[in-house]
Amino acid sequence: MNREVDHHHHTRRPTTTAAFAAGVVLNLAFVVVEAVFGVLSDSLALLTDAGHNLSDVLGLLLAWGAAALAGKRPSTRRTYGYSRATIIASLFSGLLLMGAVGAIGWEAFNRLLEPAEPAGKTIMIVAAIGVVINTATALLFLSGKDSDLNIRGAFLHMAADAACPWAWSPRAR
Question: What is the Cα–Cα distance from 78 to 69, expressed in whole angstroms?
Fold first, then answer.
């Protein structure tokens, strides 16, 4: 490795670690908020979004672990190091999200069979909090999104969640 690449690698890692830590804490707190208000208001929309955001947290943890592995130096046994761990983490994160979407779809289908009165005001307030948290989390990964597929995946996932508040509206219930 040349000195410039090595220097860039060491200066990026602490920032990435802080971004992942903050993203996990913010999103985990939001999962708790959504689950509590989902139970209190009997809102399938909030409960399923809590499940979706829990999968986001797990995806961030996977990406964080992969970023840590990718930062390890190559050895005689692993001549390329662990840089490909980020690609595998992105794959698992996508599969996790697909599983969450399947579970949400199943619950939504069941709710069509047994509808409930929507908790519109509660859903909208919690959704607004979610937009703020997802936007803040996406911004944590903004600076590294062009240099790392793993960071780009985290950024795009959080940015897409922030850009789709309509999915949490009472009509989506």
Answer: 12
Domains, the chain, ordered by start: 3-172 (1.20.1510)
- 86 and 66 Cβ atoms separated by less than 8 Å: yes
Averaged confidence pLDDT in the chain: 78
Amino acid at the residue 120: G
State pLDDT tens for residues 45-54. Answer: 888 889 888 8
DSSP, res 78: -
Residue 99, pLDDT > 70, answer yes
Nearest to 115 by CA among 37, 158, 173: 173
Tokens 């992969």 belong to which residue?
A: 66
Q: How far apart are CA 64 and CA 69, in angstroms?
A: 9
The per-residue pLDDT for range 60-74, each reduced to its tens digit, is 898 888 888 877 877
Q: Which two tokens stand for residue 49?
A: 């979004």
Longest dimension (CA), the chain: 63
Predicted confidence at residue 155, as pLDDT, reads: 85
- Find tokens 């040349």 and name the residue: 2
pLDDT at 27: 94
- The radius of gyration of the chain from alpha carbons, rounded to an integer in Å, stands at 18
> How far apart are the C-alpha atoms of 124 and 168, rounded to whole Å?
7
Tell which residue, 14, 11, 23, 102, has the closest CA to residue 61: 23
Please identify which residue in the block is written with the tokens 């190559």: 74
